[in-house]
Amino acid sequence: MYGVAIHGGAGTLPRSEMTSAREAQYRAGLSAALEAGFAALTSGGSSLDAVTRAVMALEDDPLFNAGRGSVYTLDGHHELDASLMEGSTRRAGAVCGLKHIRNPIALARAVMEHSPYVLLAAEGAEEFALAQGFTLVPQSYFHTEERLKQLVRIRDGDRSVSPLTISHVGTVGAVALDGRGRLAAATSTGGMTGKRYRRIGDSPLIGAGTYADDRACAASATGHGECFIRAAVCHDVCARVRYGGRSLESAVREVVHQELPAIGGEGGVIAIDGRGAVALEFNTEGMFRASRIAGGEPRLGIYRDAVI
């Protein structure tokens, strides 16, 4: 048994604003990332390989708020965060405040595999990247007109635009179970539109935006980062499975629909356990998501009532 699930952010464009052409683009991006992760598993790769490849595909797609297509900070820059975790060893790697790394999830994996650390930040992380043979890219690589327009609207005081909503729409993540029963999770984001003071959200924080433990499950989150940090969302899901005896579905539902709303948190969580059960839950209008288990067909969804 093996499988993979991915997300491309919760919140989504309002259904009234989602054109058929736009929806087709999102579905194509999700399909490509899902296939990248699933192909890694089919060829005998590890769960860590699967989540890395899936997230890299989403980072390369300008539709999502991760890698190319990341949102802008208030002063007009891009600052990227990512993390991943291996459930069999509970090793983890994370990076935050990156400005010149095309695929932050690849650097997070390098931190895990080639350093004694878990989290490296900003210039220090990029210095490590150079030592590991990464090629830096200019800030212009991450630019898209749509993200720039979002920043301009926020700067101009447009109250119809919520920095929270348009930011966690596009944060990406993946969870996987490989043929040897090993779990892994990964998350990557450009952060919050218009963020200041090098703000860091939940995506690079182990236990908040990402967590994996073969004794329980693997989880990746997307949403209002401050609330997800305060609720230690992904660790909470895994703890409910391991210590509380909850099914994966129940654990994810409880956290997303009870714990998060209690502190004003909006967003979603994807998770997978060692039996191949998958949960993709959200408390927003929708969540870009997809999953595939060995022997089954791909399943993609955006809004709550549309999974094909």
Topology:
Blueprint: E1 3-10, H1 20-42, H2 47-59, E2 80-86, E3 92-98, H3 104-114, E4 119-121, H4 122-131, H5 145-155, H6 163-168, E5 172-177, E6 183-189, E7 210-212, E8 217-223, H7 225-230, H8 233-242, H9 248-262, E9 267-273, E10 278-282, E11 286-293, E12 299-303
Parallel strand pairs: 3-4
Antiparallel strand pairs: 1-5, 1-11, 2-3, 2-6, 5-6, 7-8, 8-9, 9-10, 11-12
- Which spans of ≥5 residues are poorly predicted at pLDDT below 50? none
Strand order of the largest sheet: 4-3-2-6-5-1-11-12
CATH architecture: 4-Layer Sandwich
Query: The biggest beta sheet, please?
Result: 8 strands, mixed
- The proportion of residues forming helix, as a percent range, comes to 25-40%
Name the quaternary structure.
single chain
Specify the CATH class. Answer: Alpha Beta
The whole-number mean of residue pLDDT values reads 95
Structural class by secondary-structure content: alpha+beta
What fraction of residues sit in β-strands?
A: 15-25%
Task: Please name the CATH topology.
Answer: Glutamine Phosphoribosylpyrophosphate, subunit 1, domain 1
CATH H-tier superfamily: (Glycosyl)asparaginase
Measure the end-to-end span: 22 Å
Supply the number of helical segments. Answer: 9
The sequence of SSEs as H and E is EHHEEHEHHHEEEEHHHEEEE
Query: Using DSSP, what is the number of strands?
Result: 12
